[in-house]
Amino acid sequence: MTQEDVLLLIVDGGTDGPFDVDPMRLMKGGFLVAQLGREPWRELFSFRAYDYGPFDRTIYNSRDNLLARGLLELDSTSHYASYRLTESGRQRAEELTNELGPDAAWIRSIGAYVTSRSFTALLNEIYTQYPQYAERSVMRR
Q1: Chosen CATH of 3-131 out of 1.10.760, 1.10.150, 1.10.10, 3.80.10
Q2: What predicted TM-score, i.e. pTM, was given to this entire model?
Q3: Which whole-number Å values give the CA distances from 5 to 28, 54, 90, 134, in the listed order?
Q4: Which of 14, 39, 119, 133 reaches 20 to 30 Å from 78, CA-CA?
Q5: Distance between CA 124 and CA 38 in Å, rounded?
Q6: Phi, psi for residue 73 in degrees, rounded to 5
Q7: Which parts of the chain sit beneath pLDDT 70?
């Protein structure tokens, strides 16, 4: 599994939430997969405390690769850009489901979780569980 696979499944899982999969939710979804998921998945990421909590620049690189490969598409109609799967992205997500079984469903559940919370609520929950990532935050509780 790659970081791109994780991000693709997060986007797939976040399709029905009240909030879109935007850059912040993609970042926090990757963080939660790394923290709560299988041990080898932690090696896919390198998070550090930043202005809005856990941050790993490589997530943006992976997102850009998914966009360039036509697996994600950008929706820039609202204030913040958001992402959704293309038809090719849906096919890849289905392949991942066949390869990973319950792990794919679990990663999708992280996508559903991060899109079910407001920006502030999601950050506060992460800061409560992982206070070391709130050290540099510009958002105060």
Answers
A1: 1.10.10
A2: 0.95
A3: 15, 20, 12, 27
A4: 133
A5: 24
A6: -125, 150
A7: 140-141
